Amino acid sequence: xxxxxxxxxxTIEKNCEKEIKDNTIVxxxxxxxxxxxxxxxxxxxxxxxxxxxxxxxxxKYVREIGFDNCSLFCMQEMFVDNSLKMCIRCLVTxxxxxxxxxxxxxxxxxxxxxxxxxx
Length: 119
Fold this sequence. Notes:
1 helix
């Protein structure tokens, strides 16, 4: 088995539980889909949220879509002047038996500005 990491980010419109839940789920489903992996391949997911996201923890909702055997952790994103607001980022660590796997990082909505090279 080989360990890989996949990065992702998404922005939300407003600081409320529904926005955090819906967008976190969209981000993780897109990471799973684009990378053609299974939820059970995931070992851990680290989440960060910008300081303007305070209504809920993003990790709270991923158990609802099947991430039962995956370690989850939330942190506040480092604040940098003029940085992207209302952004949830994640680092998904997977283990699979594929030495040719190329992680596809996923940046959605305004977070796509963080990685213009991926367009």
